[in-house]
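tl;dr need the bound structure. longer version: we got a ligand (flavin-adenine dinucleotide) that a collaborator sent over and nobodys looked at where it sits. i said id run it. heres the input, straight from their email, havent touched it
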Amino acid sequence: MYSFEFEKPSTIADAVAALGAEDAQALGGGQTLIPTLKQRLAAPSALISLSGIAEMKGVCVNDDGSVSVGGATTHATVASEAAGSYPALAALAGQIGDPAVRNRGTIGGSIANNDPAACYPAGVLGSGATIITNTREIAADDFFEGMFSTALDEGEIITSVRFPVPQAASYQKFLQPASRFALVGVYLARFADGVRVAVTGASEDGVFRWTEAEQALTKEFRPDALMDLRINPANMIGDLHGSKDYRAHLVGVMTKRAVQACV
Amino acid sequence: MPKDSGIGASSKRREDVRFLTGAGNYTDDINVHGQAYVHFLRSDIAHGRIKSIDTSAAETMPGVVKVFTGKDFEGVGGMPCGWEVTDKHGAPMQEPPHPILAQGKVRHVGDPIAAVVADSLEQARDAAEAIELDIEELPAVLDMKAAAQEGATLVHDDLKNNICYDWQLGEADDAKVNEVFANAAHVTTLDLVNNRLVANPMEPRVAVAEYNRGTEDYTLYTTSQNPHVIRLLMCAFVLGLPEHKVRVVAPDVGGGFGTKIFHYAEEAFCTFAAKACGRPVKWTASRSEAFMSDAQGRDHVSTIELALDADNNFIGLRTNTYANLGAYLSTFSSSVPTWLHGTLMAGNYKTPVIQVNVKAMFTNTVPVDAYRGAGRPEATFQLERVVDKAARELGVDPIALRRQNFITQFPYDTPVALTYDTGDYNGTMDKLEVAADLAGFAARRTESEAKGKLRGLGINCYIEACGIAPSNIVGMLGARAGLYDAATVRVNATGSISVMVGAHSHGQGHETAFPQVVADMIGIDESMVEIVHGDTSKIPFGMGTYGSRSLAVCGSAMVKATEKVIEKAKKIAAHLLEASEADIELKDGQFSVAGTDKSVAWGDVTLTAYVPHNYPLEVEPGLEETAFYDPANFTFPAGAYACEVEVDPETGQVTIEKFTAADDFGNIINPMIVDGQVHGGIGQGIGQALLENCAYDENGQLLSASFMDYAMPRADDVPFYEVDHSSQTPCTHNPLGVKGCGEAGAIGSPPAVVNAVLDALNSGGKSVDHIDMPVSPSRVWAAMNS
Ligand SMILES: Cc1cc2nc3c(=O)[nH]c(=O)nc-3n(C[C@H](O)[C@H](O)[C@H](O)COP(=O)(O)OP(=O)(O)OC[C@H]3O[C@@H](n4cnc5c(N)ncnc54)[C@H](O)[C@@H]3O)c2cc1C
């Protein structure tokens, strides 16, 4: 890696100030950023660690019943602390990587990175969550802008994510055999006013909502409701681990399994 | 009753205490005072002509000691190949030069172009980025069949084509082979790929070299399975150094699997640079470098045809294989698709006519060489897949078809140059049928079907040639080395024993198993015996560890040396007991005079050898003997494996539900270690069958260049194994009657897994003949829906 300065502020304000320096970059759990640095694929002037900011950590239930997760909360913390308030989200967090990754990696880092095979983007989009930054609130539908791209501005920090809690939800992850990220992951959330289905791992455009499935399931919440639906393979990822057709097929299977898990 | 010590006891692996508590001493743990670090600038394109390399900016960067390019090595040799294969027309293989740093051209992604030695690794990396390269990119040669065509782009401009050799074994008369096939009642044909693999030992390769200006001695610490071989090759063929001035040490080595047999450019570089820089030089491969510079494994594309008569007897077998050698000849690469592969095509069967054809190809990929099993997995996979396909086509039971064609008379001369000394394939299959509870399979299938899963049973038999090898025979076949081994048994005055062995332990447990043998022969406690390995300044010239040879070859040398020790000790004991040497018996560490109660203890005799006051004048003092052992034949472990899988028909996901191995390894020294070797081998075989895939894109870029895309098997990918070693036909020609067990699992398991998947799919009404490895969910699903 190239050399860089390191700072560990204890308030959001100090972090924002430090990120004002040219080429400074936020450091969450480092599970994506550190390997990138080791390979000399990035050269930030300074890393501003967010892990010392108490107000960005932990899970809490708000008065309206929604669940907020601090932007610097690790996957392991979500897996344990959200188990009662939002079990499907906790289950998603518990399936990320291995214990070492889960004890370092954070929700803010994951969604800021927006890896097309990452799990959290599906959970956030599928839940219709709100991403809260140091400057504004962004609806999940406006946040994810395609592979490794988000609505975040330079130096903007995800301070927390607020999840409305659905009546039922399930994350179905089919493992890419090498990385064990999602080859295809489907997050399904059933609310009183409709069903949301978010798909990760599959599309060249990153996480997306499968609106046909949402409509069909909103009308009729049964696995069979999906029977005649097909995803167009054209935009799917085709690689060493699975063809476009295969991924399109898996989206259907994983969505069906998510429905089965909810009924 | 299982024994609790000596031969046959499951003694706990003594070396594991240091490995598991972080007390191992690996090459990267070795730091030499004043050492500098080298970083290799490697090609990021697969094929190109080097027009210029400008190192001037790099040379002035902070901390830089020296920058090297191919030019600096024009005066020394290249990396040698240890086996000359003669092609079917009698011509020697084409053998292109393999420079330490690229000269003229780069030939694969990862080919080293320049090397920067600096005070720190980061400085070396910084300076490497300042090297200016002008490389004209050339089309990459990747597809082996296309590479063999007239007019194909050449990997090596000075060769006549990309074919290293066009080799044949077995029946040379094509007409005779054609006739057998023409007269066959049934012919089964199969096209298949044996997927390229990356060995990925947990410890990446490392080299640390130092040069002593005062004594003009070199020391190279390196991650090797065979330090003497490295010293010989590097001194005699690469750097032109006197062997006695070079010490090569391979300390604790964290897994080899074949890929640490070979002499690598980085080792020779560090040794050369240590003198040139006047400082010790250290290199530690990153995992990314390992992916593009460790010799890779397998990579065969084959067509195999099996001819059967009307009674389902195998009457002929013909194979046509393209074997990928990569861009350069690695140390033993030429022998793998030939003498370690073609010779195994008879398998366990008495097929009378066999013809094996192999074209070995140069391509713009990382060199390919021996990887656990080396040629034998490739042979077994072809043969056992085609036998399985034949059984399905003929509607006969795959076990019955195999049994009907088993070799049952030994010794047996195969049509492909081997003589199997012993075996009992039906006996081993009997053990498998019981251990795998094959009778219960139908019920297990019904249970799986009730869960919506397809269940399949895959059977596989294998034979392998281990204990490589009789030097005179391999010499005739082109080996440029002898393949004996050596051991020195040094008895200390107080009776403890150090055994210096040519074999090298890098996970196999020699430090435990070898002492069991010596202790058992003398009748003393195992803890009194220790082996010393991995240092050319301490051990006799042995050939190292690979090809499941350590116990069969080096262990035999150790037995011979121990016998010499015992013989001499008996002379001393006879003197002390005032008896005739012929009457001396050794049991439980006591020498006694037959038929009397007179005895003297082992320790008293050994002390007398070193304090020879009351001593036979005609006997030399001391108690230390060396023996070299050159085997009379290969050994032939064989086995039968059964794999049961479940396939999820919706996703194509395969899970291994049950795996049973019945092996005949001859006599067994430590059953627990043998179990462990088989477990590990099966794990790697399952990895090849279901997960591992070293793939290049059309430009020669490695697609699976990290663990993000190269799938290693993990604990939850494999089941608990059932292993049965009770079928034992001892090897007839080595003193311990042992055959070798290190590679069996990796050879025997891939066909069992693939056969099981196909059985599952066919049971579900899908007519699928073959799926190439790795049998990934995507491929299974595609096969089911094509
Ligand atoms: C072996 C392994 C397996 C993995 N498996 C999975 C898996 O199965 N599923 C999965 O989803 N992921 C997986 N991951 C990725 C893991 O979840 C990472 O934790 C995550 O992608 C990045 O989070 P991080 O906190 O480590 O961020 P970092 O690596 O520190 O940062 C990533 C990026 O986000 C930015 N950033 C960090 N925090 C914030 C913030 N609060 N606001 C704004 N920007 C921020 C950084 O500047 C950087 O650009 C795996 C990683 C590894 C190493």
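gonna send this back to them w/ a short note. The first strand of chain B starts at residue 36 and ends at 42.
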